[in-house]
Amino acid sequence: MKVTIPIGPQHPALKEPISLRMTVDGEVIKDADLRLGYNHRGLEKLAEQKTWVQNIYLTERICGICSHSHTTCFVQGVEKLMELDPPKRGLYIRTLVAELERVHSHLLWLGVAGHEAGFDSFFMYTWRDREVVMDLLEIISGNRVHYAINTLGGVRRDIDEAQRAKILGSLDTLKKRTEYYLMIGANEPSFVARLSRVGYLSKEDAIALCAVGPTARASGITQDVRKDDPYAVYGETPFEVATADSCDVLGRTVVRVKELLQSYNIIEFLMKNLPNGPISVKAPRRAKPNEVVSRYEAPRGENIHYIRSNGTDKPERLKVRAPTLGNYAATIKMLKNGFIADIPLIFAAIDPCICCAERAVKVVDARSGEERTLRFSELRRMAGRRFEKVSQKRNAVWPF
Amino acid sequence: MKIAAFLPELLRHIIRKPATVDYPFKKLKVPKDFRGTPFLHPELCIACRACERDCPAEAIEITAISDVEKTFKMVIHNDRCVHCAQCVDSCPTTPKKAMDMDAAFEIADFDRHNLKAEWVYVRAVQKPKAPAAPAAPAAPNTEAPA
Amino acid sequence: MAVLRTFLYLLVYPGVVFLFVYSTFAEWFDRKVYARLQNRMGPTHTGRWGLLQPIADFVKLMSKEDIVPERADKRLFTLLPIFGLAIVSTAGLLLPVWNFDLAAPGFTSFPGDIVVLLYLLSLPTLIFFLAGWSSTSFFSTIGATRVLTMLFGYEVPLFLSVLSPALLAGSWRLAEIARFYQQKPLLILPTLLGFVIALIAVQAKLERTPFDIPHAETEVVGGTFTEYSGKKLAFFRLMTDVEMVVSAGLLAAVFLGGFPGGALIGFVQFVAKTLFVIFLLSLMRAVTSRIRVDQVVSFAWRCLAPLAVLQLLIVILIKGFLL
C-alpha cells in the first residue's frame, strides 16, 4: 500500500524549510519529490541595487555557516573585474579564516549527524569543542558568525603576535578532540549501524548527477576546487584531498573528519609562514564592463559566483550556484529504496544549506525547450488562478 | 568495535563543572575589537557622508540642519544596523576616526524606535595636510601651496 | 479506622500523591544526570537546583489549548491518557514499599502479584498503540506500528529475566521474593545477568534511547504523541514518568533485595535503590544512539532472548544443586 508522506516544509529533522514528498510502502521509500523555494529572499535582485562594497555584506548573509565562502567567492570575482592584486599577507589571512570556517562547519556537521541519529551526547561534545573555534574567530574578526573580514583588495583586520600564538595553541586541543571523535564515531556500535550502508551513491551516479563536495569525495572522486583551480594561497600550501571509498554516509563522515585534520595542518602552515606586509590595496569605486566566474571550495562543496559589471558602481548581474543545489539530484537518488528511519541521516549527510540554494525559479517548457525566469509575483498570480478553479469542487484535496 | 567506548569520558564529566555559562547571571568578557554598536564622536566628524554611502543596511542618516552654522544631525538606526563596521572603515578622518564601535551587544528592546541614536553637531574642520612635494619637475610653479 | 487507613494508603502514601511527586522528582534526577554526563547544566532555575522543572512543565501543559484532530476517534482519543495513568498508578500500588505482614496477604500483596504487575506494565504499550492509531495522522500511525514492532522484541526477554529470581526464591509474591534476598544476599550474584537484560528491556519498554524509535523527534515528528496537546499530553508524560518509577521499583524489588526496615528506613531504601536503577538507565541513554526498529527486533532475538534463557538455566541449576 503506497502512501505519500510529507517531510517538510516544517519538520524537526530539517533546520530550514524544504518540501520532500515521499511515496512509501511500509517503511521503504519508493519515490521522492523535492520542492524548493520556501527560503527565497530575492538576494540576486537586491545585489543589483547595492554597490560593490555593500554587496560584500549582502553575499555574506546568504548563509550563516558558510558565510565566508560566499563573500570570498564574490570578492575574488570583483578583484578580477577591477584588476586588483591583493597583497600576500591579506591572502594568507583570508585563507586562515576560510580554513577556520571549514573546521567550525565540519564540527557542526558532526554534531548534527549525531543528533539526527539520536546520539545526543556526541552532539553536545562536538558543539562544546566548536566553541574553541568560535572564540578564535571572534578574536580575529570581532564576531562569531559573519566574520566580514574581506574587503575589496584584501582583508580589513590584521593578526598580531598574541592572536597568532593563541591560534597555534588551540590547534593542539582541537587535534586531540578530533581524533577522539574519530575513535568514538568508528567504535560506537549503534552509531555505526545507523551510518553504514545508508544512502549509497555509486561513483558513476555521483559523476552523472553532478554531486559536489564531501558527497562526491565519499564515492571515491578526487574533486576539490582547492587543488583543481587554486585560489588565494592554496597553490603554495601543502595538503591532500580527502576521499573515501564506501560511498555511504559513513564514508562522508570519514571524509569530513579527514578534512578536519587536513585543515589543522593547513592552519599550522599558514600561521608559521605568515609573510609581513600590507593587508589590502585600495579599490576603485567602479569596475569596467566585463564578466567573471569565481569558484570556491566551501565546506559543502563547490560554490560558483557569476558576476557581470557594466562600468557603474553596482553589479549588473550576480548569480550564485551554491553547493547544496548541486547535491539535490544525488539526494533523490539516494533516498529511493531507503528506509524512512534513514531520511534524516541521508539528508543531513549532504550537509544541506538550503538558504544558500534558494535562487530564482527557472521554468523549462518540456515540449519546446524554451526557458523562462519567473518572478515571485507571477508565480503568486499563477497559483491564485489555479486555486480559483480547484476550490469550486467540494472536498478539494489540498496539494501540500 | 568496542561496546560503550564513550562511557569513561561520560562518567568523568559527572564530577566536572558544566561547560555552560550561567548567563545572564554570569557573563563572558568580549575580546578587544569586538564589533558591537556603532557610535559617533561628534567633535571629529567632517560630514563627508562616506559612512552613509557605504552602509549596506542604510542605517546611517545625515541631514544638514543649518547651512550658516554648518550643523548636521546624524541618526544611526540601530534596528537596521548589521554590525559590519564598514562605517568605521570608510571614515576618513585622521588621526582618530569619528565613527567608532563599542562592545555593547545587549541592545534588545521592545520597541524598534527606541533603538535609534542621534547626534546634533557642528561640522569639524579637517586640519590641512602638509604641502606635498612637486610631482614632476615640469609642474608649473604658479600653483599656490595648499 | 481500617477504612481510613486504606484510603490514606491509596491516596497519599504509597498511593497517588506519593507516586506523582516522586515520579516528578525521578524525572528531574534523570534530566540532571543526563545533562551532567554531557557537561551541561540541566534544569537550574525553576526552584532550588531546578527541582520544580517537571512540575512546571506539567502545569504549563495543562494550561495549553487542547486540539483534537477532526478525523480522530474522539472518545478513544480522550480516554486513553486517563486509562494509562490509572493503569500505571495501580501497578505502583503493588510494589512492596512496606514490609507487608507476610502471613496475611492483602489486596496489595498476594501470591501472583508479580505476574499482575508485569501484565499491568505491558498494557501501556497497547495504550500507546491505540493512541497513535486513533489519531489517524500519518506520523502517529507510523509511531503506533513501531511501538508494536518493538513489543515483539523486548517483551519475552523482560518476562524471562524478571521471573528468574522469582523462580530462585520459589514464590510469585514480590514481598516474599524481597524477603528471600534480604535473608540470603549472596544469591543476588547469579541473577546479575538477568539484571542487565532486564535493564535493557526496561529501557525499551520506557521508549528511551537507544529505543526511542516510536517517538523519534527527527524522523516522525512526535510518533504516537504527534496529535496530543494540552491536558492529554500532560497526562501521557506523567504516565511515562510513573512507568519509569514503577519499573525501577520492580527491578529494585526483584534484583536488589527489596525495601526492608519498616516505614522510614524502607522509604529511604526505596528512594536510594530506585534512584540507582534510574541512574543506570540515564547512563544507558547517554552512551548510545538510536537504532532502527528492525535492528531492535533482531538484536532482541539474537542477543537478549538467548541470554535470558541462559539466566533461566543458571537459576534452575542452582536451585537443583544448592537448594
Helix-strand pattern of chain A, N to C? EEEHHHHHEEHHHHHHEEEHHHEEH
**Residue fraction in strands of chain B:** 15-25%
Tell me the strand order in the biggest sheet of chain A: 1-2-3
Number of strands of chain A: 10
Tell me the quaternary state: heterotrimer
Distance from first to last alpha carbon of chain B: 80 Å
* N-C termini distance of chain A: 20 Å
Strand content of chain A: 5-15%
Give your account of this protein's structure:
The complex is a heterotrimer of chains A (400), B (146) and C (323). Helix content of chain A is 48%, strand content 14%. With 400 residues, chain A is α+β, with helices and mostly antiparallel strands. In chain A, a hairpin with a 5-residue loop joins strand 7 (301-309) and strand 8. The radius of gyration of chain A is 22 Å and the shape is globular. Mean pLDDT of chain A is 84; it is low at 390-400. Chain B has three helices and five strands; from the N terminus they run αβαββαββ. Helices cover 11% and strands 18% of the residues of chain B. By secondary structure, chain B is an alpha+beta fold. The longest helix of chain C has 32 residues, at 138-169. Chains in contact: A-B, A-C, B-C. The A-B interface holds A 50-51, 53-58, 61, 121-122, 125, 128, 131, 135, 138-139, 142-143, 146, 148, 151, 156-157, 180, 183-184, 186-189, 192 and B 1-3, 5-6, 9-10, 19, 30-31, 33-35, 53-57, 82-86, 89-90, 101.
